[in-house]
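Journal club prep — side note

Before the paper discussion, L.F. wants everyone to see what a predicted structure for a comparable chain looks like in token form. Sequence:
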Amino acid sequence: MLKLLTPFLTSLAAGEIGLTLSRVKRSAIFLSIIGIFGAIGAVFLLVAAYIALSDRFGELRAALYIGGGAIAVAIILYIIMKISDAIIRKRQRDRAKTDTTALLTVAAIAAAPMLLRSRGLLMLALPVLAFGGLSMLGKKPKTRQRRRRDVSEELRD
């Protein structure tokens, strides 16, 4: 039965991959055109800002103001990028912990019938499970630090 469905399933998967690839290509073309026109617009805005600032402050100061502003924006964007990378890495670590816990739980559940069938293994596994349970009970839960916003809200109330 599965042999009869295999060509259908592969053609379905290939068709969806082809549609996805064509959509990605189309999006890449449009985004590159948008990027080019956006860069042209940004250059003309910078030229207009330079002309306006040079009339008011002089050419040297105008160039310094625009250059300093560009560096300030770059530094701000770099800081934002680093903060978002740290948040993403933390989420990935938390997800990995959750996945590991789920995998170990599934493995323990899968091994349980074999352990319960063998009397010798059951006698060996019982103290290990008891020790694991007691060690989990003995751990103190980590207390989360309250955010400053929460503390300030409590002070207002």
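L.F.'s comment for the group: Residues 33 and 39 are 10 Å apart (CA to CA). Keep this in mind when we get to the figures.
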